[in-house]
Amino acid sequence: MFCAILAGDIPGDFVHRDGTCFVIRDIAPAAPVHLLVIPNEHFEHLENLTPDSEAMLGHMASVARGAAAAEGIDRSGYRLVINQRGDAGQMVDHLHMHVLGGARLGAMA
């Protein structure tokens, strides 16, 4: 699905795009601000990353920080989440990072 959004086959509410990743608003937000940072290259899970792709993950974190600032949630706080597989709640088999904020979020165990 995310590859189709990047290709323009499925609409997405883009917040950011560059040569490494893109950011869209989640269509089923779990917080007032819920963004998805998605690599342009398709990886299903973290174990599919290679040493050559490690910089991409760091870039995604940097883009997430910038997106949080652009949304005005950098000072109040935000959460970054990468779900891996079904038990963790991964719903799309394409690596992605959630940026959640805009309200007090519950504690995580």
Keywords:
five-stranded antiparallel beta sheet; alpha+beta; 2 helices; globular; 21% helix; 5 strands; 109 residues
Structure description:
By secondary structure, this protein is an alpha+beta fold. The protein has two helices and five strands, in the order αβββαββ. A five-stranded antiparallel β-sheet has the order 1-2-3-5-4, with helices on one face. The longest helix is centred in the middle third of the chain and has 17 residues. The mean pLDDT is 92.
Short description:
The protein has 109 residues and is α+β, with helices and mostly antiparallel strands.
Q: Overall mean pLDDT score?
A: 92
Globally, the shape reads: globular
Strand order of the largest sheet: 1-2-3-5-4
What structural class is derived from the secondary structure elements? Answer: alpha+beta
Give the termini distance in whole angstroms: 30 Å
Give the SSE string: HEEEHEE
Strand content: 15-25%
Poorly predicted regions are: none
The largest pleated sheet is described as: 5 strands, antiparallel
Number of strands: 5
Radius of gyration from the alpha-carbon trace, in angstroms: 13 Å
Q: Number of DSSP helices?
A: 2
What fraction, in percent, of the residue positions are helical? 10-25%
SSE layout:
Elements: H1 2-7, E1 14-17, E2 21-25, E3 33-39, H2 54-70, E4 78-81, E5 97-101
Antiparallel strand pairs: 1-2, 2-3, 3-5, 4-5
